[in-house]
Amino acid sequence: MILVTGGTGFIGSHLVERLIAEGRAVRCLVRRTSVVRDVPAAAERVTGDLRTGAGLAEALSGVDTVIHLAGVTKARIPADYSRGNAEATANLLEAAGKVRRFVHVSSLAAAGPGSPDRPSIEADEANPVSEYGRSKLAGEQLVRRSPLGGRSVIVRPPVVYGPRDRDVFQMIRAVSRGWMLQIGSAPRRFSLIYVGDLVNGLIAAADCAGGAGRLFYLAHSVPVSWSEFGETAARLMGRTVRTLAVTPKVAYVLGWCAELGTRFSAQPGILSRDKVAEACCAGWVCDPSLAARELGFRADTGLEQGLRRTIDWYKEAGWLKF
After folding, report:
1. What's the structural domain count of the chain?
2. Is residue 120 part of a domain?
3. Among this protein's residues, is 132 annotated catalytic?
4. Residues whose CB is less than 8 angstroms from the CB of residue 289 and which lie 6 or more positions away in sequence, other chains included
5. Do residues 6 and 59 make contact, with C-beta atoms less than 8 angstroms apart?
6. Which of 81, 132, 161, 217 is catalytic?
7. How far apart are CA 157 and CA 144, in angstroms?
8. Confidence class of residue 310 from pLDDT cuts 50, 70 and 90?
9. Residue 153 to residue 144: CA distance in whole angstroms
10. Among 86, 125, 275, 314, fewest CB within 10 Å belongs to which?
11. 8 A C-beta contact, residue 64 and residue 2
């Protein structure tokens, strides 16, 4: 039995679908407020809450492997990152003491930026530049210090895109309307991974005995720039895109204004000063070669192929019209 946290989310729903298709027994921990339309009916569902620990004993009964995807990527205040990414992980670790394998899904943000000339590798000292990154690093440290540390695998994905994603979608939607936003004029390269490839990597991390107690980057081997990403999306949609460049100072003001706007919204938005701090870095590039050697994992979906699948899904789902 595999327990998936975050199974109702973008990445988690794809993971659960794949596990079910492979004939594996899957259980999802879901909150009472979760929307479960993307979770296959064949997956068991247990209602619980990582922040309070409610329902965790039932959810973990008979579980062999935990894949911990649940987390907070957007927040109104810094404390929400800590509660969603560190405190929730601590509660799950305490309840999951007897599982064979614990796969903890962190983020490249926990490591801090890396450039094409010096991509981040697993042995580097972490230096996160955002509250989100610091909270993800805190979650990793809890995993390492726990009794499960030697049976755990920590993975750090970079930007993840694909069908059902709502964050990168904001940029693709802007491109479909003929424009995209860029901070500064210098090209900033970043690693990324198509969601289907990431699912393959998570399953490899769960299954590979040699990965226990290790950290891995899961990413496509070729980084891209945001302009390349936007121009590829524009070409696939038959659009001509214009780039609106703003200075870092203007971007911070926009982030601050966006934060003010979330006070009147039910959910925090993707734009904030925290996200601007990440976007202003020279690059977010990681080296996935250790995962290739130790897990036998490679992300095979190139940018054009992945974007075509993603855009086709958005169009079919009615998210994009062009």
Report:
1. 1
2. yes
3. yes
4. 221
5. no
6. 132
7. 18
8. very high
9. 9
10. 125
11. yes
Considering the chain, what is the average pLDDT of its residues? 92
Q: Pairing mode, if any, of strands 101-105 and 179-183?
A: unpaired
Judge contact between 110 and 162, C-beta under 8 A: no
The half-sphere exposure of 22 on its side-chain side, counting CA atoms within 13 A, is 14
Strand segments (E) across the chain: 2-5, 26-30, 44-47, 65-68, 101-105, 152-156, 159-161, 179-183, 189-190, 192-194, 214-217, 224-225, 242-246, 283-284
Q: Answer yes or no: is 313 within a domain.
A: no
CA dihedral 278, 280, 283, 288 (to 10 degrees): 10
β-strands 65-68, 2-5 pairing: parallel
In 117-248, DSSP assigns E strands to 152-156, 159-161, 179-183, 189-190, 192-194, 214-217, 224-225, 242-246
Residues paired with 3 in a beta bridge: 27, 66
pLDDT band, residue 258 (cuts 50/70/90): confident
Q: Is residue 234 part of a domain?
A: no
- In which residue are the tokens 């990440």 written? 278
Phi, psi for 94 (deg, rounded to 5): -65, -35
Q: Which domain holds residue 16?
A: 2-164+191-219+285-300
The pLDDT score that the predictor gives to residue 263 is 67
Interacting residues of 8 by C-beta distance below 8 A, sequence separation 6+: 28, 30, 34, 35, 36, 38, 39
